[in-house]
Specification:
The complex is a heterodimer of chains A (294) and B (138). With 294 residues, chain A is an alpha+beta fold. Helix content of chain A is 28%, strand content 43%. Chain A contains 2 helices and 16 strands. Chain B has 3 helices and 4 strands. A 4-stranded antiparallel sheet of chain B has the order 2-1-4-3. The relative contact order of chain B is 0.16. The chains are: A alpha+beta (294), B alpha+beta (138).
Chain lengths: 294, 138
């Protein structure tokens, strides 16, 4: 009888231990599960916030630059740039102000350390495309210009629309010389306050030559808008529009190059060539500012 | 009699153990659910701010001192979500330039509020601003 009682006690104790152990194990499993889920959700929050900040600053960069870019990729690659080129306004001032704002107030409201590296943007604001094309907005010697070229050598432009609407009144508009071996078709449209100098012309040009169009606004030879098409500063098949005019002349430019044989991957992006460094606790990111994804 | 007491004891013990188990499960399930809810709310808030900036409603609001368009947009969002949007000037962010609250939304003290911020540039004013969107579930 005594032996049966002892046995009963053992069974009850063993059952209690088994029950408590299984509850403990269950609680531990759940606790780890929840911890790992909390870690996952914290990571989702961090990365989601980083992408949100990149998108925010990318959109702000587009607004600050004011360069409209659109792409048509049916068959050939067709880019369209909408730009305003004043004669003497320095866009770089806006970028510097933006950098100050990002590194102070913007970092502070986002509880992060955010830096904008603009060392490469001394006199030039470069927009780089993922296939090697570059669109530079230059401010040099107090004058603005835009320069479109390829880092791979040739932009492969086969035709382009170049539309300029200028606020000044020109006295003379030159035409580029006729080419013997033309390979680029240029549809050139020019309008300013002098209706006599309005131009609507289609020209066949040789992209290996520096084909120049000059628009003069006074007898002063430096009071001009210069357009270079073709071999410009060693870049093949490039385009350079330079507002050197002395008055407050503003160019409204719509430039649409069509390019053949350009390697366009499924993802085609445009970046501002400035480094965006983001630090928040254990998350570090260093990327160029993405302006557009096409 | 002894058997009856042991049985009652066992039933009480098992009930207690079961209640304890349910409490633990309930507690963890609740914490998991609330953090996912917060993420959903944060993602929706980010989307709302992105749409408001990219449709230029934020820029127009500071340039014209009118926030009607923002209010209209917030009123169209899902019924179970509440929003309050504040616009600030970066050079003087001590007080909001403008505040818009979605119709029918009142903040309750024990509801967790998600705050999301987005900057924007006004070309007309040549200035930087930021918008803070507070979001909570009804």
């Amino acid at each position: 009888m005594e032996h049966v009682k002892k046995m009963k006690g053992y069974i009850i104790s063993f059952s209690a231990i088994l029950l408590l152990s299984s509850m403990l194990l269950f609680a531990l499993f759940y606790s780890e599960n929840v911890q790992s889920r909390n870690l996952d959700t914290a990571n989702i929050k961090k990365y989601s916030k980083l992408e949100f900040i990149k998108d925010d600053l990318g959109f702000d960069a587009n607004k600050i630059l004011g360069t409209g870019i659109s792409v048509n990729r049916t068959g050939n690659l067709e880019l369209t740039f909408n730009e305003i080129i004043p004669s003497d306004f320095n866009k770089m001032q806006r970028i510097v102000k933006w950098k100050e704002f990002i590194e102070s107030s913007y970092s502070s409201i986002n509880n992060a350390e955010i830096k904008l590296g603009i060392k490469r943007m001394d006199k030039v604001i470069p927009i780089k495309f993922s296939n090697g094309l570059v669109y530079d907005y230059n401010f040099d010697a107090g004058k603005n210009s835009v320069f479109f070229y390829s880092t791979t050598g040739n932009t492969n432009i086969s035709e382009m629309d170049l539309n300029l609407n200028v606020t000044g009144s020109s006295v003379f508009v030159s035409k580029p010389l006729l080419s013997l071996n033309p390979d680029v078709t240029v549809n050139f449209n020019y309008i300013d306050q002098n209706a006599l100098n309005e131009k609507h012309e289609i020209r066949e040009l040789d992209s290996s030559l520096d084909n120049t169009i000059t628009i003069r606004f006074s007898d002063d030879l430096s009071d001009v808008i210069e357009i270079h098409l073709g071999n410009v500063n060693g870049k093949i098949n490039a385009v350079w529009v330079w507002n050197k005019s002395l008055s407050q002349n503003k160019i409204n430019l719509v430039f649409k190059p069509v390019m053949n044989a350009i390697d366009v991957n499924s993802s085609f992006n445009a970046f501002l060539y400035a480094d965006l460094n983001y630090f928040q606790t254990d998350l570090n990111s260093n990327d160029l500012i993405e302006l557009k994804q096409f | 009699m002894k058997g009856f007491i042991i049985s009652v004891d066992a039933v009480i013990g098992l009930t207690l153990a079961f209640v304890l188990l349910l409490s633990i499960t309930g507690f963890f399930a609740e914490s998991k659910f609330s953090s996912l809810k917060e993420i959903k709310l944060a993602v929706v808030s980010e989307d709302v701010l992105t749409v408001l900036e990219k449709s230029e409603k934020l820029e127009n609001a500071v340039e014209s001192n009118q926030n009607k368009e923002i209010g209209k947009y917030l009123n169209k969002t899902s019924k179970n979500l509440c929003f309050e949007l504040n616009l600030f000037d970066f050079e003087n962010s001590s007080s909001a330039l403008s505040t818009v609250t979605k119709n029918g939304c009142k903040k309750i003290s024990d509801v967790s509020v998600i705050s999301t911020k987005r900057s924007f540039y006004s070309g007309g004013n040549n200035k930087f601003y930021w918008a803070e969107l507070k979001a909570w579930n009804t």
